[in-house]
Amino acid sequence: MSSDYKKNSLTLADAVAMGTGVMIGAGILALTGQIAELAGPLFPMAFIAGAVVTAFSAYTYVKMSNAYPSAGGIGMILKKAYGPTAVAAGAALLMALSMVINESLVARTFANYLLRGLGMEPGGWPVPAIGVALIVFAYLVNASGNRSVGLLSQVMAVVKVGGIALFGIAALWAGGVSFVATGEASETGIGGFIASIALSILAFKGFTTITNSGAEITDPHRNVGRAIVISIAVCVAVYLLVAFAVGSSLPLDRIIAAKDYALAEAAEPALGQTGFYLTVALALVATASGVIASIFAVSRMLAMLTDMQMIPHSHCGMPGKVPDHTLVYTVVIAGILTVFFDLSRIASLGAFFYLVMDMLIHWGVWKSMCDEIGARGWIMLTAIGLDAVVLGTFAVLKWQADPVIVLVAVGGMITVFVFEAVFLRLNPPSGGTDQVHHGPD
């Protein structure tokens, strides 16, 4: 793996493929059933609500990435907004962790679909074992270089977006447009619907993958923002199509019962055995490409945070340079999470970390960067408000259902910020310049 950041090594198509690769892998395959469990029969609307919240959030990232395209992405935004402080470093590390959590989520989803396709009931030790094997495979692809990631992401993105959209059309055609997932409304009512938006936001957060590759995208001052907008638009269309297809094929109770492999469960009654196996194959392609794209982005982000002296780094006896090492660290952490957490808890932890980080980004940019980047402050404040409502509602429901994961999330965030405060106090960044590798002007 080359340790240098290669300008113009990723095209607009590569960037869109990477963004949709992360989003569709998590959104439809890993989260549809969990969203339905919270939102009840309104679960397709949760994707629309999540897209609205994401649209407000994406505005800040687009404005900052167009102004300052960087291989550091989120880290760059936070450092410019807050300076080399514990807040910036801690929030950046939360983002990196949420991306690693996403890799674990999608890796376990890959395992569930594979086992279901083999006629086995998903569960037990095979799920983490297969998930870890996928993460190792993703490491090998990433270690081969940017073009391997870009080309593979493009091919797999076309296959899965087209294939999953075709599944949605075929399922609607076979089952009719009647929506059978009409069981009783969620016991949590409107609170459950709002909480479900936290998970649907996770289904769109893959757009941040693009910001973390900004310095390597061709014409980054224009194409980073374009890639983000295109990726979100593609995913909204695919999510809605598939959500209605699943709801037209299965009653709500069956969607929830099969929440870890809902698309495969919906394919069989609508499309028969052939459709079932094709859907499983598409799910495997989608989740595999999602893990590959996410590992690429988060390893780059950790490398840039190291360059910016915002996190500690040790070679641990490994050859190569910083990006080679951060790739290994990313894979190891993702593998550990895959082994020890189930899908529901992984998704919840990712939602907590991401939403807190997202609010900090909007606040920091609104407070100190609005005029510099020519942004509209009211959009950022609206994004903060929407995030706060969703996060608060989600936290209340999770505290009632699974207080352990809330405590883990809060404890994890406190640990991150305290760790960064101590690290930066003992190792203040040298120099006053912003050590970010920008794209070409």
Automatic annotation (TrEMBL):
Membrane topology: Multi-pass membrane protein
GO molecular function, one term: transmembrane transporter activity
One family name in Pfam for this protein: AA_permease_2
Transmembrane stretches, start-end: 12-36, 42-62, 82-105, 125-143, 155-176, 188-207, 227-246, 276-302, 322-340, 378-397, 403-424
Subcellular location: Cell membrane
Domain of life from the UniProt record: Bacteria
GO cellular component: plasma membrane
Main subcellular location of this protein, as a coarse class: membrane
InterPro entries linked to this entry: AA/rel_permease1 (IPR002293), APC_superfamily (IPR050367)
Keywords: Cell membrane, Membrane, Transmembrane, Transmembrane helix
Protein name: Amino acid permease
Species this chain originates from: Mameliella alba
